[in-house]
Design goal:
Elements lengths: L1 E10 L2 E11 L4 E6 L5 H9 L6 E6 L2 E2 L5 H6 L2 E4 L11 H7 L7 H14 L1 H5 L10 H13 L5 E5 L7 H16 L3 E5 L3 H7 L2 E6 L2 E7 H6 L1 H7 L6
Helix pairs in contact: 3-6
The structure holds adenosine-5'-triphosphate (ATP).
The site of adenosine-5'-triphosphate (ATP) has 12 residues, from strand 2 and helix 1.
Length: 237
C-alpha cells in the first residue's frame, strides 16, 4: 500500500497541497482528478521525491519514505511518467527508454524488459532507432510510458497521459492501463479527462486548491452530483 498522510507542500508562499491523505492499495488503479492548479502534479512529484513536503509523510507498506531520494524510491518500485512526456527530443526512441533503466545493472534483465515492452508497444519497437521528436504525439506518449515501465515498477504514476491525444489514442492509453492492471501493476493516474479516469479506476480522489474534497469508489463518484456538475458538464456519465 502506498499512502500519503497529512501531506503539505509549499512553493514559497503558495500552499500547493494542504493536509492531503490518499491511499493506494496494491494492484489497484487510483485516479486523481481536479481542475488546473489543484495540486495533482505536485502530489505525484512529491510521492516520487521530486518535491519535498513541508509536513506530512509518504508511506510505502507502512515505511516512511518521505526522506528518500527519487532514485531510492525508484529502486522501491515507484516510477513516474511526467506530464508533457519530457522525452529527450534528439535521442532515439531506444535511448529514451534506456534512460528509464539507468538504475538497472543486469543487462539480461534489461533485454527481457525490452522484449516485454516490444510486445505491448509494437509501434514503439518498430521505431526504436528513430529520433524521438519525429514521432507523433501519441507515439511519444507511449515512449514516455515505456521509459517508466522499463524499470518494472510495482507502482506506475501517470501524469496526464491522454493530454493532447486524439480520441483513438486516448482509448489506447485506457486499454494500456487496464492491461497493466491485469498484470498486477498498481497505477496512479492524474487526469483532466475525469470521465475516462473514473471509468478505468477503482478509487478516486478529487483535489481542489490543494485539498482532497471528495474520495471514494470511482463508480460512485461517476454518479455523484458534485462530480458530475464540476467535472462532467452536469451530464449523466
Ligand atoms: P495542471 O493540471 O494545470 O498541471 P495541477 O493540478 O497538476 O495543475 P500543480 O501543477 O501541482 O497543479 O500546481 C499546484 C499549485 O502550485 C498551482 O497553484 C501552481 O501554480 C503552483 N506551482 C506548481 N509548481 C510550482 C513551482 N515550481 N513554483 C511555484 N509554484 C508552483
Amino acid at each position: 500500500m502506498l499512502e500519503t498522510t497529512h501531506l503539505c507542500v509549499d512553493y514559497g508562499g503558495v500552499h500547493a497541497l494542504r493536509d492531503v491523505s490518499v491511499q493506494v492499495p496494491d494492484k489497484s488503479v487510483v485516479s486523481i482528478i481536479g481542475a488546473n492548479g489543484a495540486g495533482k502534479s505536485t502530489l505525484l512529484k512529491t510521492i516520487v521525491g521530486l518535491h519535498r513536503q513541508s509536513s506530512g509523510t509518504v508511506l510505502l507498506d507502512g515505511q516512511d519514505i518521505s526522506r528518500l531520494k527519487p532514485h531510492e524510491r525508484l529502486d522501491l518500485g515507484i516510477a513516474l511518467c511526467p506530464e508533457g512526456r519530457r522525452l529527450f527530443p534528439d535521442l532515439t526512441v531506444y535511448d529514451n527508454i534506456r534512460v528509464g533503466a539507468y538504475r538497472m545493472r543486469d543487462s539480461k534483465l534489461f533485454r527481457q524488459r525490452l522484449e516485454f515492452l516490444h510486445e505491448i508497444f509494437p509501434r514503439v519497437a518498430e521505431r526504436g532507432q528513430q529520433i524521438a521528436s519525429s514521432l507523433s504525439g501519441g507515439e511519444q506518449q507511449m515512449v514516455a510510458i515505456a521509459r517508466a515501465l522499463i524499470s518494472q515498477p510495482r507502482i506506475l504514476m501517470l501524469d496526464e497521459p491522454t493530454l493532447g491525444l486524439a480520441p483513438k489514442l486516448i482509448l489506447e492509453v485506457a486499454k494500456l492501463v487496464q492491461t497493466l492492471h491485469s498484470q498486477g501493476v498498481t497505477v496512479v493516474m492524474v487526469e483532466q479527462n475525469a470521465k475516462l479516469a473514473l471509468k478505468i479506476s477503482d478509487q478516486a480522489f478529487v483535489l481542489e486548491t490543494g485539498t482532497v474534497t471528495l474520495q471514494g469508489r470511482s463508480a460512485d463518484l461517476l454518479q455523484s452530483d458534485a462530480v458530475q456538475n464540476a467535472y462532467l458538464g452536469g451530464q449523466a456519465a
